[in-house]
Design goal:
The complex is a heterodimer.
Chain A (H helix, E strand, L loop, with lengths): L22 H5 L4 E8 L2 E6 L4 E7 L4 E3 H14 L3 E4 L5 E5 L5 H10 L31 H16 L9 E4 L11 E7 L4 E2 L1 H7 L2 H7 L5 E6 L2 E6 L17 E2 L6 E7 L14 E7 L7 H17 L6 H8 L1 H8 L27
Parallel strand pairs in A: 7-8
Antiparallel strand pairs in A: 1-2, 2-3, 3-6, 5-6, 8-13, 9-12, 10-11, 13-14
Chain B lengths: L8 H4 L9 H9 L3 H16 L4 E2 L12 E2 L2 E2 L18 E4 L6 E3 H14 E7 L6 E6 L1 H13 L15 E2 L13 H9 L3 H5 L9 E4 L8 H4 L2 E7 L4 E2 L1 H21 L7 E5 L9 E5 L4 E6 L8 H5 L4 E2 L4 E7 L13 E8 L3 H21 L6 H8 L1 H7 L23 H14 L1
Parallel strand pairs in B: 8-9, 9-10
Antiparallel strand pairs in B: 1-3, 2-4, 4-7, 6-7, 10-16, 11-15, 12-14, 13-14, 16-17
The chains are: A alpha+beta, B alpha+beta.
Chain lengths: ~350, ~425
């Protein structure tokens, strides 16, 4: 098609959200007074004007076919005045101004297979990424891992029985697009990249790849007479940073790309400051389609947290109280030498005190 | 009717169980679309071999340099032809959502119709940067789909070394903790960076995120180069009726253990009503006929805990705005970085206030564009050049709220100490 016939984009940016708000939300914009939770999956907000709104939260599969979206729209049209919103964890929220609509809305969602929950002290939907379905560098799948895990954690989604909210994420490589979480499942490669030297010169911008390596393990080399790259395998930390800019440096391996479990990440400033999550388990097999070994570790950590943490303690608050030795003892996870940080700034993660719990 | 589906024994196992199944959704689409039949075959192959098979490339829309994520299959036969030929191209369009991710069903149904016609029919609400992800489109159809989506008033998001799509929490729309108009903040900034979103030309990505209070529901402190997190300067507000209602339901043990005992700076005390201090910095509220909570707002760090527990009984103050933190990102390549404070408080009420926020954003992105190395994020740049050089670059004065503690080593040249002291004193005198 000739360029003259191409439509010029309207560079409109982010649309005005006010046009999509439920009328009660629009009327009370910036004027809310308080909220409570009448039951799991339902929020009740009261405005300073006295108006009230009930929100019903339902879990979705995130990667939704148009039939699923249309079904959710049908439900919103029938019960929620045709308005919805999504949470950051891909839950769909239906707002109703009439409390009488709450129960039938929940019944309709459940009848159609959408779990109602994810509020308050529940395990909400797992933040995740694209995985094998769409990503160009994934070590594992995303939607599948999440489906398998949420099947296992379903009861914790529809109830509010945890000490505080629990946020989970999964990530298909060490870039960790799923993000920090109370419990995060992240690919951890254990072998250096396998290099296809026939392709490197044509596909990769070699100086950029050299610069990408965090431990300076990559250097230009002539292999079989062709310009390529080589990796000092003793230095390599198998992070996979070279793979995106240079796909012939294949880091993913069906056997040696393992899964690691991290705990205690938290963005909220409530109580202790925001925390990075810490690695507590690794070496778990990438066992599609249901990743049972990963599910077992996650469920075990959740069980111990649920039994042992006090009300309002997030995973990080709880571990701060009981200490890391007892975390490993209670969860029966092995504390190995690999869990002692040796990256830059690592000494700040060492115990510079005699604070020891006996 | 589409062609015959492949056997997908692995994916089939993801159809059982109580959580909604994306596989079941894909199979519904595959009934009518050869495209999705092959997408399922492609994904099953990944499950069987435990590897991914998409590679990137260059696909875009007329007039823009980014916003489409190209994907071409790498599963080829011995003649180098795609094994799943109907899904040889599986591109994604990133579409920027409204702030707070509010929709009406009319717009969602229109998205569905467009994507059923031009794409796979699979839409992810939302990607980790906040985009509506229209997943699965051929190169030929990318422009057609975008044109129709664009006509609805929606625009492509960011990809590559660009300002990226942003997110705001529900905030003002439905949350009593909201300390500024998150949607207004988002649109003020993002819609002034459209050129940097649509035509990637920065050293690397730059993300803004908007959370209305320190609970930071948008995870902005760890996931954005510039986090705008709502807060307040004056005293916590109280409501006696709601406080008594809370106490009647929860009792003294919970009040002591869950509220008073968990304050990170010990700013809350339980007192006899008659003993409550009357200072200007004190908030207090009675919980029964004899006892009250006393909060010393000078000690409070606005962490939100007590307000979360006793919502409505305690509430953010009236003098509201945001704390602005810069440089958050996940681990590659120098290790995790939290955003750190560059503006302890910026009032966000009037249009002029929001213009000041935009101005700071512009200065920050300009400095980043000129000073970051290729593939270096803002936080990594600050780590390399030091916070003070960054602050001078964006014309922001130092403030003790920017550090957890002053320097612990003597390794610094301090020739101009006296001049700096004079500056600080002059500023104090002028205030």
């Amino acid at each position: 098609m000739a360029q003259a016939q191409m439509r010029k984009p309207v560079e409109c940016g982010v649309p005005d959200h006010m046009q999509y708000l439920h009328p009660t939300l629009r009327n009370n914009y910036g004027n809310w007074k308080y909220h409570d939770r009448p039951r799991p999956g339902v929020l009740h907000h009261v405005s300073k004007s006295g108006e009230e709104v009930w929100t019903v939260r339902a879990g979705t599969q995130r990667q939704m076919d148009v039939y699923t979206i249309r079904k959710l729209c049908d439900i919103a049209d029938k019960f929620a005045e045709g308005h919805v919103r999504f949470t950051i964890r891909s839950n769909m929220e239906f707002m109703v101004a009439d409390e009488k609509k709450v129960a039938p809305l929940i019944a309709e969602l459940e009848k159609n297979g959408f779990p109602v929950g994810g509020t308050g002290n529940s395990v909400s939907m797992i933040a995740h990424t694209q995985g094998w379905l769409h990503c160009d560098i994934p070590g594992t799948d995303a939607s599948g891992v999440v489906k398998a895990l949420m099947d296992e954690l379903y009861e914790e989604f529809i109830h509010e029985e945890m000490p505080n909210r629990v946020r989970l994420s999964t990530s298909c490589c060490e870039i960790n697009c799923g993000g920090q979480a109370d419990i995060a499942i992240v690919i951890q490669h254990t072998k250096p990249p396998k290099i296809n030297h026939d392709l490197v010169a044509n596909v990769c911008e070699r100086p950029a790849v050299v610069a990408r390596c965090p431990v300076a393990a990559i250097r230009p080399a002539l292999v079989n007479g062709k310009p390529s790259l080589e990796v000092d395998e003793k230095k390599c930390i198998c992070c996979g940073a070279c793979f995106p800019p240079c796909p012939p440096m294949q880091i993913n391996d069906p056997e040696h790309s393992k899964l690691a479990i991290w705990v205690g990440g938290k963005n909220s400033n409530a109580r202790i400051k925001p925390q990075f999550m810490k690695m507590v388990a690794a070496g778990l097999p990438n066992n599609a389609p249901r990743w049972p070994e990963v599910a077992a570790v996650v469920k075990n950590i959740l069980r111990v947290y649920k039994e042992d943490a006090r009300p309002w303690e997030r995973m990080a608050d709880w571990i701060e109280r009981i200490g890391w030795p007892r975390f490993f003892e209670k969860t029966n996870l092995p504390f190995t030498k690999y869990l002692i940080d040796d990256w830059r700034g690592a000494r700040s993660n060492l115990n510079a005190s005699t604070h020891i719990r006996f | 009717m589409a062609k015959k589906p492949y056997d997908t024994p692995n994916l089939d196992q993801l159809e059982s169980g109580p959580w909604p199944s994306f596989v079941t959704g894909l199979k519904r689409l595959a009934k009518d679309k050869d495209y999705v039949v092959d997408v399922l075959g492609h994904l099953e192959h990944s499950y069987k071999t435990r590897k991914g098979y998409w590679k990137g490339g260059t696909v875009g829309v007329f007039g823009y340099g980014g916003g489409v994520i190209p994907r071409f299959t790498e599963i080829k036969d011995d003649k180098e032809q795609p094994v799943f030929k109907d899904a040889a191209e599986f591109h994604t369009l990133r579409i920027m959502p409204p702030a707070g991710m509010h929709y009406n069903t009319d717009i969602l149904r229109k998205f569905c119709d467009i994507w059923e016609k031009h794409g796979s029919g699979l839409i992810a609400f939302h990607g980790q940067s906040g985009d509506i992800m229209m997943q699965g489109c051929t190169t030929e159809n990318v422009q057609k789909a975008f044109d129709e989506i664009n006509e609805l008033g929606f625009d492509l998001g960011g990809a590559g070394p660009a300002v990226r799509t942003s997110m705001a929490c529900v905030g003002h729309a439905r949350c009593e903790q909201s300390c500024y108009d998150e949607g207004k903040g988002l649109r003020t900034i993002v819609n002034n960076f459209l050129d940097d979103i649509h035509r990637p030309a920065l050293p690397y990505k730059f993300k803004f995120k908007f959370s209305g209070c320190p609970n930071d529901c948008m995870n902005s402190i760890q996931r954005s180069d510039m986090a705008i997190i709502g807060t307040w300067r004056d005293n916590i507000q109280t409501d006696a009726a709601l406080a008594k209602k809370w106490f009647a339901k929860h009792g003294m043990n919970e009040l002591v253990n869950d509220v008073v005992g968990m304050c990170p700076t010990r700013a809350i005390q339980l007192k006899e009503i008659k003993d409550v201090r009357k200072d200007a910095n004190i908030s207090s509220v009675a919980v029964n006929d004899s006892q009250a909570l006393e909060i010393d707002n000078k000690d409070c760090v606005r962490c939100m805990h007590c307000i979360n527990v006793m919502t409505g009984a305690l509430a953010p103050g009236n003098d509201r705005g945001a704390t602005i933190l810069v440089g958050g990102k996940r681990t590659l390549k120098i290790g995790d970085l939290m955003g750190t404070v560059v503006v302890p408080f910026m009032k966000l009420k009037t249009d002029e206030d929001y213009e000041k926020l935009l101005d700071l954003a512009k200065r920050t992105v300009d400095f980043f564009a000129e000073n970051a190395l290729e593939h270096e994020r803002t936080g990594e740049m600050i780590e390399r050049i030091g916070l003070v050089n960054f602050l001078e670059g964006i014309e922001v004065e130092v403030d003790p709220n920017m550090v957890s503690a002053p320097r612990t080593n003597p390794y610094v040249r301090m020739d101009d100490w006296d001049a700096e002291v004079a500056k600080v004193n002059a500023k104090k005198a002028a205030a």
